[in-house]
Amino acid sequence: REITKALSATAQTQTQQNVNLVVKYDAICPNHTAPPPTTTATTTSLPTTAVVNSTLRTPSLPTLITPRSGNSKCIKGRSADTPADSCLEILKCDYFSKSGYYWIKVKHPTELNKVTSLLLFCSMDYSACNLRGAMRVAYLDTSQNHSCPSALGETVQSGKKLCTVKSTGLACDSVQFPTYGIRHQRVCGQAIGYAYYWGAAFHYNTRTLNDAYTTGLSITSGPQNNRTHVWTYASGYREHSASAWNCPCASSPGNNPPVFIGHDYLCESGAHTSNPAKWYMENPLWDGQGCYTGSSCCSTSRMPWFWT
User: Fold this and answer.
1) Rounded to the nearest 5°, which phi and psi values hold at 23?
2) Rounded to two decimals, what is the model's pTM?
3) Cα dist from 295 to 39, 93, 250, 279, 292, whole Å
4) What is the spatial distance between Cα 51 and Cα 43, in angstroms, rounded to a whole number?
5) For the stretch 123-146, what's the b/e string if a residue is b when 16 or more beta carbons lie within 10 angstroms of its beta carbon?
6) pLDDT band at residue 27, thresholds of 50, 70 and 90?
7) Which one-letter DSSP state was computed for residue 17?
């Protein structure tokens, strides 16, 4: 139920029964072909998972960038009068452009046939996903005194502010961030969560994207009535001792994820064996550390980042 850091192009958070997530939204979305009008980050959680520090980004293809000398005369994106079509266009105009805020052409929020410009953050280095020329869609970091989105609750555990799910039972809470009609082809992000009590990974037999199919964070793209899956961060029951609620990667594996997820997920448990009803603040989820012997849940080299 707690969300502290998540990054995406339209984010939507869902939780099922007792999940606690803390999300930090920091989305980046590049502009190429393939245009999902919005990207939705959905945090879905069951009994006891908290998400902290989630960052979702959409990077550009490195093959589209040709190294060359910097162009100090490039004015694209430098003012509201000279907005760029995308962060990538700015980078191609001046290869040595620094990460920061630039003016980007976007569709008018209410008049869809009208174009306006907004000051948006462009990631021009390789710090996020080893890709450049990406646009941040949203950013939330509760460690920097950011407030949680109104759709989510808020709590403080071990000195950390967590954005929590308000709903109870097999339900979800959603936060959406627009991509302003800017086309993107890839999505990259990061989410680190904290578990409370226990999670259920992929135990439930709900097998569509619109069901409460996991405990954790679900990131989707597209309009609410036609979303597609991007990535799932799931929280499992425990890593040792058999249970269908365990992660598929646990030393004692649980259920496999639904078909629509494929391999686009990370799963981890806050507890290794028994699960007292408490916050597991000492073992953050999805950070590639603290897994039980024999578990492969921390073996993905790019953790805690993902990209599609």
Assistant:
1) -120, 140
2) 0.74
3) 32, 47, 5, 21, 6
4) 8
5) bbeeebbebbbbbbbbbbbbeeeb
6) very low
7) S
